[in-house]
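Posting for a labmate who doesn't have an account.
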Amino acid sequence: MAVMWTLSFVVPLLVAATIAALSLGAGEARARARELVVQYAWLAVVPTGIVASLDDGALKTVDWMLFGTAIRLDEVGRPLVLLAVILYGIALAFVPRSISERPAGLNGFLLLCFTANVGVFVAANLVTFYLVFAAMSFLGYAIVVHDRTTSARRAGAVYLVMTVFGESAVLGAFLLIASEGVTDVISVPAAVAASDARDVIVALLIIGFGVKAGMIPLHVWLPLAHPAAPSPASAVLSGVMLKAGIIGLLRFLPLGEGAAEPLWGGLLVTLALVGGLLAAVVGVLHDNPKVILAYSSIGQMGFITALIGAALLEPAIAPAAIAAAVVYSVAHGLIKGALFFSIQVWDLSRAPTWAVVVPQTVAALGLAGAPLTAGFIAKYVSKESLGDVALPGLPVVALADILPWFAVGSTVLLARFAIAMSRRTRRRTAGKPISTAAWAVLALAAAAPVWWLATGFAPPLTVPGWFSPGPVVDQSWPFLLGIALALAAAALARRPRFREARLLHPRGDIVPEGDIVVLLERAAGGTMRGVIRASGVLGATRDALVERVRRGPSAMLAIDGLQARLGSWVISGALAAAALAAALVFVAMGGGGS
């Protein structure tokens, strides 16, 4: 099995290296060979899918590699590795038919990101985890800026700053954990719970992995990166890379260890609820489908963060909450990946419009949690896992009763996404039946693997009956309310008196992409303009004073006259006598006595 894991990491790296080597020189034969490798690069992820399906969960170590590499595939990592195989595989198949000017470079970096991303999910010690986590994060920069547009470069700059910030926090937390004598990932939660530096470690972990998970207010890179990156890259950014932050929180926070953590659990739950609300409000103010999906991802990551916060508040529910977080992560990854891929299918595929709209609609319904979808299962098991955990500071309000409102926001966002997509022109210039078919299966059949996953945990999570009246009613009202709100907004927007209303006809200029970053940029720009104006005023004042001094009587003449008078014998003698008299008086009064 260790050999198979080695191959699963080596094959994508070799394919990426082959693409790079074929890109170095010119020539028609070399170009044809490179095109062939790029076209079938998706096959490089297959070995990982096979080994992840067959792995026995035992620890594998390679002592000479990366200061001691150790990997283990557990019930948390296995579903996420398989998710990575599916989404990266489809993304690699989509790239050759995308509008990217350099498909070879994009596929090469996707293969590198895939290798590091899988490493994050299986890393079993701190050194291995940190190195692959950092590699994945910095390689992600290349796929964000791939198109080299102005917006892509700006998004890449913000992404890089936030990545360095997050990596620094994770490194600080890991150094504190290692100082406790712990290096195995499986031992970290208990060590953190017992550490004297527990609060500092937890704070650093939340910051570091919160950046990667797009948790508000650390989300600022996400709504900039998604619209800037090519659609296949956006699919893996949202569907898989965000989950690296989630698994970091699940692996290293003291979930189910020791006493409850009301401070940190309450903070996570609060940020999750605020983030879900704000993401929905801001998302509907945009008209770019990829920006809308980006804000949807922020809200969905808030949902998962709420589960993690609840596990900190009530350690007894930690196993069920962790399992529910994994199920929800997989459901979100499959659905959101399908929606991002659908943008390229809509733009370029020669498939009939109905063949694009139907899978896209099923995926959207799944994200909203409509019955008989993957989201329906994920939201139900998440709600059931929470038990009676109450909102921080409001013991009479159950968190499980608040989470359905996330589905209301998701439904409104997806209605806005549908409107934005309907206004896009289909070019139908490219497409490949096999990749389009793979996307359609992903969108239509996501419920099956999510159902299998939820029932595969030990003990299995409580799953809803497909046609049970109770779960169907409980899960339907948020979706129906969201549809009603969307229809009401559409009806208002059509009225003559609201034809020019910016809130009802948003164009993305009320709250720009990047929200907080834009506000900070504007504040910094205003401050700089104020400093420049102030420096101009000070400069003018200085020049006026210099001019007045230059035009007035010279101070040097007066100083020279004073020096001349002091230099005369009479004045000098008088001053010396006065100084001597003062000294005698001081001594006579005892000032010099001991």
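Reply:
Got it, the structure tokens are right above this. The beta strands are 60-62, 69-71, 390-391, 394-398.
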